[in-house]
Amino acid sequence: MNLPRFLPSFLVLSTILCAIPAVAADDSTFVSQVNIPATIGVGQQATVSITMHNSGTTTWTPAAGYKLGSQNPQDNSTWGFSRVLLSSKDSIPPGGNKTFTFTITAPPIVGSYNFQWRMVHEFVQWFGAFTPNRVIQVVPAVSDDADFVSQSGIPATMNVGEQRTVSITLRNSGVATWTRAGNYKLGSQNPQDNSTWGFSRVLLSSNDSIPPGGTKTFTFTITAPAVAGSYDFQWRMVHEFVQWFGDFTPNRVITVNQPQITLCPGVTADGGFGARADAAIQQCINQTPSGGTFQLPVGTYRIGATVQITKPMTLRTAGTSGQANCEAAGVACAVLKADPSLNVNTGLLRTAGSGVTISHLVVDGNRDARLSGAASAQCQSFNNEAGTNIFYSFCDGCTFTHAVSRETLCGTGLSWVGDGARVTNSVFRNNGRGTVNGLWSDGLTLLRSANAVVTNNLFVNNSDVALVLGGSTNSTVTGNTIQQNDRVVFAGLHVSNFGNNSLGNFTGTTFANNSIDCGNFWCDFGIQLGHHPWTVSANILGGTVRDNSVHNAWQPIDIDGAGTAANPIRVYNNTITGFSVRTVPCGPGQTSAYNINTADSVVDRNGDTTPITQLQWHNCSGPPFRP
């Protein structure tokens, strides 16, 4: 059978058409747009959303170049850009929706501007529906503004801790609507962002929408500060994270008073550091029977004369029995705070006799307020007693526990003479001011006490010696933490005799598991055993110094003037970190990690093989390393 050489043309065409697949098509349908502002201030931003439906047969991905593009006119950057991208993980199939949420920035010139968009397959084609065009009015930049209208209920006086309800009314004189979602709030002023009255922001309610021209009355409850004084009350509108705006409310000065507190039957006092309270406290101590307890209510008491305890009794803050120390979260303690004019040689608080316990009490020397007073002059004439906070004077079997001594003017936070001392779980902080001669201060000075226990105390930023002992047999000094963060201290731990040949006996005493962290090399000596760097006196006797740690001290451990052949000092298993050799202006002229002046010290190292130097540190009174 013979076939024709050429097929008929209609057969050829039909064959070709059957071989071509359907062409994929881009298309989109507008679904919605939300949060498009009618007006916006010059340069102001707004977050908007546009939702488009994929009504074509292609999948929209960023890799394929699908984007939302600006229109009216095409490719304009009126609102900061001409394209809105899909996210890197987007894959919008046929029939799917995509919501583009993006932030626009208003043009810099006032006027009317179009807001319209359309899908684009970049470098291929524009396609699908346009979004409905919106004309947005760009107005002058002061879009947020507020006028003060009124305030009411603002008291002239309050008592500490008292609550009052107040109202402030402001008018929206800007062009933006105030809403909680838009981060519009009433914010504290004078000073800005203060929380004097319990908070720094007053919120709109979740349903509030205050349009331009509308007013908002903020009604809220304030709580007076815990310390008596005069306080400012002023507020202003804030667009959080954007700007403060509008009128300040008129400033009102509210006087906060401390009502008289009943200390004990028939005796009241000012607990807000107003009038002096030392006489009232003394009267209650005198009324407390021997062996009894005087529980001082929480407050800050102005002390203008020494408060004295000369009989066995306990003084503590009311309601604190069994609680952690006064610096622990949630523990409120009474504060004895020095009157700026205080100038005595017996401290804010003095105990004598036996069986006295001070527990859960803060003693504050009010150092900075006393720097220009008579006591400061006494300190600078090297009368340490004029600035000391607390004296335990020949007080046997006495205790200082869960308490705080801070801001001593000079001398020491706590001076102790008396056997059976118990100093536990307490804090000695910011005592003295080492940059002025005579104003330096120890944290705790245990001049003499046999059978003492000094454990689990915290010493922070003291300015002479954090913890110094002048003689203490059969005692325990363990678990104490010494930190220097911002000021020089002569020594973290000093075992001494104060240059007095009748002191310095530490037979049977253990110094163990104490931590000395000198921060950025704020300690001259970490642990100093013996008094010879100050003055050459008799050697201290006995004692065991073990398992302590010293970090970042100039001279971490120095033993000079410690131990005798008959009664050596035992020193072993102590840890030193962060040391580097430094030049110093006295003694051997340079530091070393671990020094024992074997020429005048007798040390039992108990098998410890830590390398040592054998340098002489003599007559470096000063302290030696301060600039």
Short description:
This protein is mainly β.
Can you tell me about this structure?
- It is a single chain.
- With 627 residues, the protein is mainly β.
- Among the domains are: 28-139, Immunoglobulin-like, CATH 2.60.40.10; 146-257, Immunoglobulin-like, CATH 2.60.40.10; 464-627, no CATH class.
- The chain is 4% helix and 43% strand.
- It has an 11-stranded parallel sheet, with no helix packed on it. An 11-stranded parallel sheet has the order 24-27-30-33-36-39-42-45-48-51-54, with helices on one face.
- The longest helix has 11 residues, at 9-19.
- The model is unreliable at 1-22 (pLDDT under 50).
Key traits:
disordered N terminus; Immunoglobulin-like; 3 helices; 627 residues; 43% strand
List the helices and strands and how they pair.
Layout: H1 9-19, E1 28-34, E2 39-41, E3 45-54, E4 66-71, E5 83-85, E6 97-105, E7 111-121, E8 125-130, E9 134-139, E10 146-152, E11 157-159, E12 163-172, E13 178-179, E14 184-189, E15 201-203, E16 209-210, E17 215-223, E18 229-239, E19 243-248, E20 252-257, E21 260-264, E22 267-270, E23 272-276, H2 278-287, E24 293-296, E25 300-303, E26 307-309, E27 313-317, E28 334-338, E29 349-354, E30 356-359, E31 361-364, H3 374-380, E32 390-396, E33 399-401, E34 404-406, E35 411-417, E36 422-424, E37 427-429, E38 441-448, E39 453-455, E40 458-460, E41 465-469, E42 476-478, E43 481-483, E44 489-495, E45 510-512, E46 515-517, E47 523-529, E48 544-546, E49 549-551, E50 553-559, E51 569-572, E52 575-577, E53 594-596, E54 603-604
Parallel strand pairs: 2-9, 11-20, 23-25, 24-27, 25-28, 26-29, 27-30, 28-31, 29-32, 30-33, 31-34, 32-35, 33-36, 34-37, 35-38, 36-39, 37-40, 38-41, 39-42, 40-43, 41-44, 42-45, 43-46, 44-47, 45-48, 46-49, 47-50, 48-51, 49-52, 50-53, 51-54
Antiparallel strand pairs: 1-3, 3-6, 4-5, 4-7, 7-8, 7-9, 10-12, 12-17, 13-16, 14-15, 14-18, 18-19, 18-20, 21-22
